[in-house]
Design brief:
136 residues, mainly beta, six-stranded antiparallel β-barrel, 1 helix, 10 strands, 46% strand
């Protein structure tokens, strides 16, 4: 049965190995998984290019727009300035989540308009590195 993606939460792993909430996800374009090929053409391949798997999984950079509170997003600024790789989780519900290591490469707070009050929002760019796990 299909699951809804409503109620997605972004968390960052802490010293207790849990993922406290950094922000409520407004939108996320999850990373693309790829396993690049390596050309293995040789003189005996009969005039046909051949390829083998690199066996290196790569995750593309991706962005998430979140609602946040200043205290929670401050850890992301600290990690970005220090170049720290953090462990993050995008939790779709209590059973379905993606956990991954990533560098924060960009934080863009979104405009505030006094005539149309809104929640604090930021667009966070992640560069996944390390491993990813998907639970369900």
């Amino acid at each position: 049965m299909a699951q809804t993606n409503y109620g997605v939460i972004l968390g960052k792993q802490d010293s207790t190995l849990t993922y406290p909430t950094i922000g409520e996800v407004v939108s996320v374009d999850p990373p693309e998984f790829s396993q690049p090929e390596v050309e293995s053409t040789h003189h005996g391949s009969g005039g046909v290019r051949t390829f083998i798997s690199s066996k290196l999984i790569e995750l593309s950079p991706f962005k998430a727009t979140i609602n946040y509170v200043k205290a929670n997003i401050a850890t992301l600024y600290t990690d970005m300035r220090a170049g720290t790789i953090g462990r993050y989780q995008v939790a779709y519900d209590s059973l379905n989540a993606e956990q991954f290591g990533a560098l924060i490469t960009n934080i863009k707070t979104l405009p505030a308009d006094a005539q149309k009050p809104d929640v604090l929002k930021a667009e966070i760019t992640f560069r996944p590195t390390d491993s990813i796990s998907i639970s369900s």
